Protein: 4-hydroxybenzoate 3-monooxygenase
Organism: Leisingera methylohalidivorans DSM 14336
Amino acid sequence: HQTQVVIIGGGPSGLLLSQLLDRKGIRSIVLEKHTREYVLGRIRAGVLEHGFVNLMREAGCSGRMDREGEIHAGFHIAHQGRLDRIDLAKHTGGETVMVYGQTEVTRDLYEARDAMGGVILHDVQNVQPHGLKDARPYVTWEQDGAAHRADCDFIVGADGFHGVSRKSIPAEVLREYEKVYPFGWLGVLSETPPVAEELIYARHDRGFALCSLRSRVLSRYYIQVPLTDRAEDWSDAAFWAELKRRLPEQVAGQLETGPSIEKSIAPLRSFVAEPMRYGNLFLAGDAAHIVPPTGAKGLNSAASDIYYLYHGFQDHYLQGDSSGLDGYSGKALARVWKAERFSWWMTNLLHRFPQGTETDLRLQRADLDYLFSSAAAQASLAENYVGLPY
Ligand code: FAD
Ligand code: DHB
């Protein structure tokens, strides 16, 4: 193979970048370790920032999202028996978020790539980037027992947290920052109408809970659980009972339960790898950074990386200006760290920390009291939630 950009990883980051580049006449191939069915079977994020939504529009993949996605102008926080609302639009001059699942985003991107004849190779093994400091880097892999190679100008590592790209940067260059939280989120997807029109984030003495949704007939709920729990050990009945305990009575009374169609536990982690560029390799999305899910910044931070990379490649190939690519790591990291701060803050605000002291609890309560007594604090939350500017 000969191409301009090899993209390792066919998740939302890699697919969105290849689609955006193709529309500007920049050629790429995407190498994905798993099958398409496997990638589409993963239930992940559900809330899209307006910047992400605009990028999907620019990529020409927003038809179904604009028809079926829900625009949300606010969400609720349940705490101390109260249910308070954050008015996103009011505090941001009219900005909103879009509720539309990552699964659907990925499906739409696959369809758009197919329609344009984009090259996405699935089920590839042993992907390995080479010559990162050379003028002509290349990537090798195996498929159906045969060895393959693609020569290119640049390699993008969009292969998630466990991918090969970050690991191919020499240890003396790469600096990693990490914080692991002492709990996970147990998530359930069910074909039931959502308990409320808008999302509800709940702080409770028994632990955090979140009521989210994918559509009017598909709900997504999460509860904080110890890291030692296993999803198989949680029956549907036990999950619904625990969720109800953590919600205000008027909400719990409205909850429609049903069989789960997906149930899994995700650990919570803050992680940043610096720099996000090494020679001709650029890291993007989960390959470079992870946030705890509180505040829905994971997929959205991946999208802002893609925005910077897309513009960097465009300037490089169409105008001969490499300043965007040269500034990529610094620009992307500046925004990533703000998303890291926000997700860490929202996680601290709403979770029950097993080692937390009485003092920690009072500080957390004061944080919530301050939030709902200050328009400035609500504006700060709202501005971060809808997404900081690119
Ligand atoms: P990924 O989606 O991880 O895609 C990377 C792709 O690369 C994968 O398809 C993988 O198969 C492929 N790959 C990996 N290694 C290789 C290799 N060596 N060679 C080739 N291909 C490879 N965010 C939220 O905002 N809200 C949520 O509720 C939420 N829930 C989450 C739950 C879980 C269990 C996880 C893991 C993440 C969740 N996230 C959530 C985060 C969000 O889903 C990610 O930020 C987002 O998927 C990042 O996209 P990506 O394309 O960068 O990485
Ligand atoms: C969802 C996940 C989040 O982490 C969040 O903050 C909001 C919604 C979701 O999966 O729907």
